[in-house]
Design brief:
Number of helices: 2
Number of strands: 3
CATH architecture: 2-Layer Sandwich
CATH superfamily: Signal recognition particle, SRP19-like subunit
Structural class: alpha+beta
Shape: globular
CATH class: Alpha Beta
Number of domains: 1
Distance between the termini: 47 Å
Order of helices and strands: EHEEH
Radius of gyration: 13 Å
Largest sheet: 3 strands, antiparallel
Length: 106
């Protein structure tokens, strides 16, 4: 049965190396190269989704469009009126900001 209270966020949604056809969901300018599960968790927490625990993280999953490559996803609780595309865009921006901060520190 479909769960309408949660949203699944795959790493492939934010991967700059992938085309939209392969699974990227945000603009290439907003995406990052090879995102990690810790980056998406940190970005989700920065965006206000604090209910992430080990039950909502799957490191061994395979994204359906690229089933030959291991990927990961997290599941977050959706707020009443939020669309999945808006959640993805917000978390993508947070991931990009955090990655840019890390580059500027080095």
């Amino acid at each position: 049965m479909k769960d309408y209270d949660h949203v699944i966020l795959w790493l492939d949604y934010f991967n700059k190396n992938l085309s939209k056809r392969k699974g990227r969901r945000i603009k290439r300018e907003s995406a990052i190269y090879d995102p990690t599960i810790t980056e998406i968790i940190d970005a989700a927490k920065l965006a206000g989704y604090d209910d992430i625990n080990d039950e909502k993280i799957n490191n061994q999953a395979r994204f359906p469009r690229r089933s030959f490559v291991k990927s990961s996803y997290i599941m977050i609780s959706r707020k009443q009126t939020e669309k999945k595309s808006a959640i993805i865009k917000t978390i993508g921006e947070k991931m990009l900001q955090k990655r840019n901060k890390q580059k500027s520190v080095k």
